[in-house]
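// run 5 | inverse folding | seed 20
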């Protein structure tokens, strides 16, 4: 079972899994919140080894029905409320889905697999944001103390702690990953890169928070999926793996870089450059200054390394968004407008 398989990383992972493990039955358990989109999975919807279950992690009954019906023997848990800005406007959904939802999933798995917990893998997919904010030096290690700052990262930290405790107390076969910022196809256009690409194509202002000097470590989503596959199959039980691209950019630098790439793709002249759309706006409350991952452990223990350079990943991503304008407009024409108004005024 992959939870959250209709979202950004989940959809990429479902596609990856059916391509690389075609004999596995993949059950996508997803509540189809605003962030879930079955259009992402059009190409495999009739695959003989794919099933979709409309279910909500906040409801234990939904989970146990799916376990019974499909004889679930392993879980990769991605479903979450995932956007920091939304967590600031409305933290309750984050606590309910990310903490209570993870609790419900752990408890159902524990009960359903009680005959032999050790043979059933539970991979918990988390974020580097649980470690808080870095100064100008240093990187997050698996041993870095948790210091979450937003309702989103606090709720993910809570879920990580539950997973850890279920291993320690009940001996569940769990592994946890903490990954840096992803980018790539199917990312909902509330996150920086797809929002930027969309606003450039529509000649809308590009909102850059604060001074634009916050730093993120960007990883192409397919490289993340490859890492998850490796950790699922080869990561030792109880271990935590940090995943990151060693690819740090300040927000203003990445925005300018993407603008220049888009100018070429869209044939925009210097006068008409996407860079002219950059607009500094009020900062996000509690905005973490810098994230950076030290991925030595996964590189050494599991021989993982990202296959895509940033230029390759970005070029694939830009091409995908330009070729899928219908996908974008199906999203941006709906309730997205209300969110955009609330966030950017
Ligand atoms: P997303 O917001 O694009 O997708 C989340 C999916 O979860 C959606 O399909 C949604 O419908 C589903 N979902 C939400 N609440 C649910 C519930 N109560 N029950 C069942 N399904 C529910 O998220 P994403 O960016 O793909 O992130 C996936 C996971 O990876 C999250 O756990 C996130 O914390 C983690 N992560 C994301 C990033 C990133 O850069 N996007 C980086 C590191 C880790
Ligand atoms: P985001 O994609 O929301 O990911 P996260 O907050 O989880 O890292 O934002 C990435 C960075 O871009 C973050 O520092 C906030 C910034 N940002 C903007 O400057 N403007 C925007 O409109 C958005 C959505 C993000």
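// decoded
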């Amino acid at each position: 079972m992959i939870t959250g398989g209709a979202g950004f990383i989940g959809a990429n992972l479902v596609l990856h899994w059916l391509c690389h493990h075609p004999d596995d039955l993949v059950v996508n358990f997803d509540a189809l919140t605003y962030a879930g989109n079955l259009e992402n999975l059009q190409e495999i919807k009739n695959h003989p080894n794919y099933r979709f279950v409309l279910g909500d992690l906040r409801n234990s009954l939904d989970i146990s029905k799916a376990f019974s019906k499909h004889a679930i023997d392993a879980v990769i848990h991605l479903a979450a409320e995932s956007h920091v800005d939304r967590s600031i406007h409305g933290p309750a959904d984050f606590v309910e889905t990310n903490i209570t939802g993870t609790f419900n999933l752990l408890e159902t798995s524990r009960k359903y697999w009680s005959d032999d917990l050790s043979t059933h893998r539970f991979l918990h997919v988390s974020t580097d944001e649980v470690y808080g904010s870095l100064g100008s030096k240093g990187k997050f290690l698996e041993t870095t103390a948790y210091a979450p700052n937003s309702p989103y990262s606090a709720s993910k930290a809570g879920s990580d702690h539950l997973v850890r405790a279920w291993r320690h107390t009940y001996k569940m076969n769990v592994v946890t990953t903490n990954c840096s910022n992803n980018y790539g196809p199917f990312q909902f256009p509330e996150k920086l890169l797809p929002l930027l690409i969309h606003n450039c194509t529509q000649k809308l202002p590009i909102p850059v928070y604060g001074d634009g000097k916050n730093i993120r470590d960007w990883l192409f989503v397919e490289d993340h999926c490859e890492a998850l596959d490796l950790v699922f199959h080869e990561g030792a039980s109880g271990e935590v793996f940090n995943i990151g691209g060693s690819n740090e950019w300040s927000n203003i630098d990445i925005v300018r870089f993407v603008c220049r790439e888009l100018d070429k793709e869209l044939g925009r002249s210097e006068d008409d450059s996407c860079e002219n759309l950059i607009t500094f706006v009020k900062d996000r409350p509690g905005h973490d200054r810098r994230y950076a991952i030290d991925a030595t452990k996964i590189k050494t223990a599991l021989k993982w390394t990202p296959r895509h350079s940033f230029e390759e990943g970005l070029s694939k991503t830009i091409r995908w968004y330009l070729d899928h304008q219908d996908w974008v407009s199906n999203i941006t024409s709906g309730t997205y407008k209300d969110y955009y108004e609330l966030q950017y005024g």
